[in-house]
């Protein structure tokens, strides 16, 4: 086994271990991990069977086997980009829907609170208090009278 094949095998095993660790720590979902496990398996397979890449490249008409790897990587990145774009679009739609629901809930709450006084209880006068100014117990009037001179 050449040193390049050994490095490739180690890299593939590191991808495997990293993906499995991310799934166990719940930092990656299993449905996304499958793609990266396939990539790791492909790297390990190419490292264990060195002639596989050259044979596949010549079968497909590639003069340089590395060009097949570049094309495969490009296609993989293109597919991941498309998949992430679809996922982001779905998440944007979900966030928009949640924001609209929050607005509706806040409006409902505000409508309910309008009928309550400062003490949190519903009042028949719409929450203005029996004095009509939101003062439930007449404190404002008493405070105003206390500020007036005694002779007035």
Describe this structure in words.
This protein is mainly alpha-helical. 73% of the residues lie in helices and 0% in strands. The chain has helices at 3-24, 30-48, 50-60, 65-114, 139-147. The N and C termini lie far apart (108 Å).
Features:
152 residues; elongated; mainly alpha
Short recap of the structure:
This protein has 152 residues and is mainly α.
Topology at a glance:
Elements: H1 3-24, H2 30-48, H3 50-60, H4 65-114, H5 139-147
Helix pairs in contact: 1-2, 2-3, 3-4
Structural class: mainly alpha
Number of helical regions: 5
Q: Classify the beta-strand content into a percent band.
A: under 5%
End-to-end gap: 108 Å
> Rg, please?
35 Å
Mean pLDDT: 82
From the spread of the alpha carbons, the general shape counts as elongated
What is the count of β-strands?
0
> Which blocks of ≥5 consecutive residues have pLDDT under 50?
none
Oligomeric description of these chains: single chain
Helix content: over 70%
Q: What is the N-to-C succession of helices and strands?
A: HHHHH
For the largest beta-sheet, the strand count, sense and barrel status come to: none
